[in-house]
Amino acid sequence: MHLKLRFDEVDRWFEKDKEILNHQPANGGWTVQQVLEHIYLTNFYLLILIEKGSKKAMRNYLNLDLNSEIKNYSFDKEKFEEVGEHGAFEWIRPEHMEPKGELNSTEIRNLIILQYHQCLEYLELMKNGEGLLCKTTMTVSELGKINVYEYIYFLSLHSRRHLTQMKNNESETIKN
């Protein structure tokens, strides 16, 4: 549900007029168009990790005790929440996640829609809890080792973080 909500919210931004999409904020930050491209790029790289993790989790299913993993699993929601809060922490993103302006709005929108469907496919593949069977280190906000489901949740929270940024841009555009 969280995932669908976030993807739907991001998708609605593509319907904004060009003035809102291309407004350069006074603080020198990204335009909404650039933020949307950044969301796509971040999703792209996270989905590479999610794909690898899901494959490994499914392989691990043959050798690990899934019931034990499920029984012993606890989710620290508080630890994750700041990922979704714009400005909650400082993090220098890798250069490959910086918007370059090489894709138009329609291309970015279509790619983000495909990314949503990829997430759903991974969740369907790991519908019995298998995503718990593979953990990978996430350096952002010192999350440490997180499982494949948590990576998908991170992807969703990342979008929420930038939805706030886009709303701030839009408010500034309307004031001017």
From TrEMBL:
Ranges for domain DinB-like come to 18-166
What is the protein's name according to its record?
A: DinB-like domain-containing protein
